[in-house]
Design brief:
This protein is α/β, with parallel strands linked by helices. The chain has one domain: Rossmann fold (3-Layer(aba) Sandwich), CATH 3.40.50.1820. It contains 13 helices and ten strands. The chain has an eight-stranded mixed beta sheet with strand order 3-4-6-5-7-8-9-10, sandwiched between helices. The protein has a two-stranded antiparallel sheet with strand order 1-2. It is globular. The termini are far apart.
Length: about 300
Amino acid sequence: MPVLPTAFFLLVILTMLQGCSHTTDIPSWIDLIERKPVKTVVVQGHRLAYLDEGQGEGPPVILIHGFGGSMWQWEYQQQALAASHRVITVDLLGSGLSDKPDIAYTPEEFLTSFTGFMDALGIERAALAGNSMGGGVATAMALTHPNRVDRLILIAGFPDHVKEKLTSKMTRRALDTWAPIWLVKLGSWFAGRGMTETVLEEMVYDHSRLTPAVIERSYRNRQRPGIIPAIMKTGRSLPLWEEGFARRLGEVRQPVLIIWGDKDAVFPPQVGRDLQKSIPGSALEVIPDAGHLPQWERPELVNPLILKFLR
């Protein structure tokens, strides 16, 4: 095909991508297992979306999603924890409903944004629960600002030597790719919901939980404007996690609960056992018949563990 028609074809496709993209407006509500009001706060000029549930006497708990995820991954913890705690569920900068600025998405930028988020909400100290990469953010907070972290709950992450311990070929390919962003956008548009379903099937052990509604909302999340560049830049900043924080896991002094799915296809259970050995005094709970999102897949087992640990 001649160069000019090919370039024109690509321009048309990219225009279609923009036309099919969701608006950057943040909705007032989000439909999880229950409809929840979405709140926003501006941190360093960027909007962060979050949920704020419960006014219990216990300390606040902030729930942090993983790489490429969003607040829906914590939908089964809202009601269970809100009876005794203030439960805050955030979409990190570059994810979900939050803004996706053109930045490098380094660990330091995540830390600055997260600290500013706590400041904006008037939270001096909180328990942090992080899933996968969210566990990395929580651990980095505990190491950098130990006086602001009461305790840590690390669900399926975040270990040292991340790329070496990954057993997910799909995730490894996503982290290793140096394809231009426009090409990745194009591939994402053509792959559509099928690719989203494939990703979820690797994350979740019990595929019967992946209903059309679950797949659809995850697909919509991955189609939000700006999310692909943010995900790619976050992945490319992983070496900075290794240099700045992974080597210091032994310095964590807060109480730590580690939760792992025994069928995790992203990081096998041995990674969780190694992580426990790296953090002095930490406890490990392995959840049967659960993948990389045990808090979503087996909340009836995970929620009592979280509540007991928080109390």
